[in-house]
Amino acid sequence: MSGISYNPNVIPLGGTGGSTFAAHGVLLGEGTSPFTTVSGSSAGQVLTWVSTSADPTFQTPSATGWRLISSWTYSSDVSSLPFINLSGYSAVYVVLLDVTSSAASIRRVRVSTNNGATYLSALGDYRSMGAGGFTTNQTSIELNGVFAGALSPYTCIYGFNVSGASKPAKVVGTTDYILPTTTALNAIELSPSVGNFTGGSIYIIGM
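-> structure tokens emitted (207 positions)
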């Protein structure tokens, strides 16, 4: 058409500002600047509006309802099992099924505030509850007494990713706990107090 200029690489002349874009990406308008592309990094992520001054990004949606996050089934002896990237969950169940150990031991749960770089393990990071609200300082959540054979205890940590408040935890059939930290949690580690895990399965369920 006479009098109309078009250039596919020039923004004011109707172009995109680029000749190629990442496959399967989403194009984002950038005013008079060339289009940009944003892509997800894993299945299930959704494009999320961050702010009026920043491009949207693909993020894992917050979980709704209980769902299986991760699991482990015995294939070889291990001394500890970390489960990371749990920041999207407000409550987390740790379920052991017929878990055995190489020596008589306590199955322990410890938590992390830095996604598994370190785990809280100082005396007093966990407090077991007694009658009348009295507490005893502990170095972990203890799921059972000292035993090597197959055990199937489980615990739930509530307020897992909540900042500004301590977290209650319940070991079903035995002791309740308080986790004094007011920092949001984002990882869990399971281990026997001595030896290795030598059998069974472990499930991490979150909401």
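The chain has a mean pLDDT of 89.
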